[in-house]
Write a structure and sequence with these properties.
Length: 128
């Protein structure tokens, strides 16, 4: 079990990402740095760097500018990761906060949704 959005968790998530051939194929023209964190705990953020659909780096976030940032309350992250709440509705209702190019996000919406649903495959401890 990995503590949600810990450095070990994001590394396990990167492994899961790279096993997902459909996701990598759908994102073959997508490269970005993505920062994930729990609302109010930006100092504990983690990052995933994607190059042409493949996750190349996962670890602690730093102070540089990210292409995308995603954050939510612990409860909303859990609802997203367990599939109780869909990614699209989470964004539309602002339960999942988003910073970055909305045009790019909309272009890759099905892959974005898959990447969030994939969180349920990581053995996660929700004791934050």
């Amino acid at each position: 079990m990995y503590k949600f959005l810990s450095e070990d968790w994001i590394k396990a998530y990167m492994e899961e990402w790279n096993k997902n051939e459909k996701l990598k194929s759908d994102l073959r023209d997508f490269s970005a740095s993505i920062k994930y964190y729990i609302e109010g705990k930006e100092g504990e953020a983690v990052e995933l760097v994607v190059e042409n659909g493949t996750a190349k780096f996962a670890g602690k976030a730093n102070a540089h500018k990210y292409d995308f940032e995603l954050w939510a309350s612990p409860d909303n992250w859990k609802r997203l990761a367990t599939g109780e709440m869909g990614p699209r509705s989470a964004m539309l209702t602002k339960r999942l906060k988003f910073k970055g190019s909305m045009i790019t996000a909309m272009r890759y919406m099905s892959a974005f949704e898959e990447s969030l649903r994939m969180m349920s495959r990581i053995p996660t401890s929700w004791e934050l």
